[in-house]
Amino acid sequence: MTTTTTTRLQTTKLGEHIGARIDGLDLTGNLPGETVLAIREALNEHKALVFSQSGIETDEQQELFASHFGPLTTAHPTVTFEEQVKKTVLPVDSEQSIANQWHTDVTFIVNPPQVSTLRAVTLPPYGGETLIANAAAAYRSLPKEIQALADTLWAEHSNDSDYVRPRTVNSEREKKYQEAFVSEKYRTVHPVVRVHPLTGEKGLFIGTFARHVKIVGVSPYESTDLLRLLQSHVTRPEHVVRVTWEPGQLVLFDNRITQHYAVDNYSRAPRKLNRITVAGDIPRSVAGKPSYSVIGDASHYSPIVEVD
């Protein structure tokens, strides 16, 4: 355990490459600037932070905490439900959807969120963990020759993806969620290797929304194989932390350089986490070129922010 004395952060690493638990920090109310800075520095280092007893019990408190890191997005570019009391809150609810596909939040728009917060609301009696993978550690452990290839690649991301095609649809609510998710089409081209604007790290920026690599002379079949190779490397167990949810927990993760996955091992018992995300910048490649939109305007969902 290490302690940052100026801000009294008590940090315990959860794995070599990703994850740390923060104990003894109440996240409610306006946080001092030095505390916010310390949290940001810890996030840059560990990519995913688990606040064991955050003190946050309401959507309003979660909103205030997330807003320390930048302007908030609305809940989602396409998904809205009547039960959403706060426009910034997306209920990740087992009764309407499951997220058991490896993904980075909302990469089908030109400026995906920079960070995401998840708060435990309703937990199943067992299971329902969240896995989070470090895409920078995955890149670093690639052979140099594959790194060089990946540095040059671009991939098209779309919300019309396997994320909303579960093997079974168990309820009308699930069907409505899927229909809402693709009610407006988004297609965006991102670099396969994104440079993190704060740390300078290179990370594999793919996930389930990445549909195919855009490279002249590569067939759809070969494109699928390229993505499969890189994606399987991101989610190697060495690059992953497993968050076992407990009451009172809040998780903050860097959406610029991680992927996550909700484990479907709880017999579809009630499971609900509330998600609030912070608006992000436009990704840039190793060569400094920005992502670009092909179809879809997400300005109603998120402003484009400068690096923060």
Structural write-up:
The chain has 308 residues and is an alpha+beta fold. The protein contains six helices and 17 strands. It has a single domain, classed as Double-stranded beta-helix. The chain has helices at residues 33-46, 59-67, 135-140, 144-151, 172-181, 220-234; strands at 2-4, 9-13, 20-23, 48-51, 90-93, 115-122, 130-134, 154-158, 187-191, 193-195, 202-204, 210-213, 240-243, 250-254, 258-262, 272-278, 292-295. Strand 2 (9-13) and strand 3 (20-23) form a beta hairpin. The chain is globular.
The overall strand count is 17
Which whole number gives the mean pLDDT? 90
Describe the main β-sheet briefly: 8 strands, mixed
Shape: globular
Helix/sheet category: alpha+beta
- Low-pLDDT windows of residues: 1-5
Determine the N-to-C terminus distance.
Answer: 28 Å
- Could you state the order of secondary-structure elements as H and E? EEEHEHEEEHHEHEEEEHEEEEE
CATH topology: Double-stranded beta-helix
The Cα radius of gyration reads 18 Å
Please describe the structure with a list of short key phrases separated by commas or semicolons.
alpha+beta, Double-stranded beta-helix, 6 helices, disordered N terminus, dioxygenase, oxidoreductase
